[in-house]
Amino acid sequence: MDTIAERVRRLRQDLTRASARFGAPPALVAVTKTQPPERVNELIESGVSQIGENWVQEWRGKSAKLLPGFSLHWIGRLQTNKIKYIIEQVFLLHSMDRPSLAEEFGRQAVLSGRRAPVLVQVNVAGEAQKAGLAPGDLPEFLRQYGGHPGLEIRGLMAVMPEADDPRTIRPYFRRMRELFEETDRRSYAGVSMRELSMGMSADCIVAAEEGATIVRVGSAIFGPREAK
Fold it and tell me: pLDDT averaged over the chain?
């Protein structure tokens, strides 16, 4: 049976090959939602220290049981009334998806004495059920919040449509890379385009081929989720 370490090793090799034209493989964020602390702790031996969580209540219940050395990425939609529980722990918020979240997250970051790193979520496929800014709304959002004293905007994030064949959604990955590069060229005050977070277990290789700097991977590391 495959171990976590073996899956991570193979995945890193595949990502390195896929991203060759960009010069460096994307960072690997292990999606640890629903995983018990003992499984998450196995990641350290595999050289994976960046983990992604979605649910505040679950995170609060298991964070104290994790080994030291993990960096917390918040990858799920975040309610403003839950910010206070994670503001001092989160290394990078991927899902900055609306002005109200920017206002409150930035405010609480200032109160915590930090300028919190965030990525702006873009709904690149225009899916009604998904969060994120429309691509056309991105420039105004960056102009408005790029200089916020509590926010350090480091890049963009997207959740792609589900597809049986990830190659069919390649245009969305390509469009996100174009947005990333366009935004970088425009040089918004207080904004640095350092990270492009896109791609999950089913489509992370296509994401790497199209220039992701971070991929968010769960089942490809931990194995398929068991049916309940």
Answer: 96
Residues constituting the chain: 228
Positive/negative CA dihedral, 86, 83, 142, 53: positive
Interval 173-218: pLDDT, tens: 999 999 999 999 999 999 999 999 999 999 999 999 999 999 999 9
Answer whether residue 228 is part of any domain. no
Q: Round to whole Å and give the CA distance between 40 and 17.
A: 26
**Residue 111 located in a structural domain:** yes
Confidence of residue 1 (pLDDT cuts 50, 70, 90): low
Contact 147, 155 (CB under 8 A): no
Domains in the chain, number: 1
Rounded CA-CA distance 152/150 in Å is: 7
Per-position b or e across 114-126, b if 16+ CB within 10 A of its CB: eebbbbbbbbbbe
Tell me whether residue 198 is in a domain: yes
Q: From CA 4, how far away is CA 8, in angstroms rounded?
A: 6
Domain extent at residue 187: 4-222
For 75, 103, 211, 222, the CA distances from 121, given in Å and listed in that order, are 10, 15, 16, 25
Indicate the pTM of the whole model.
0.95
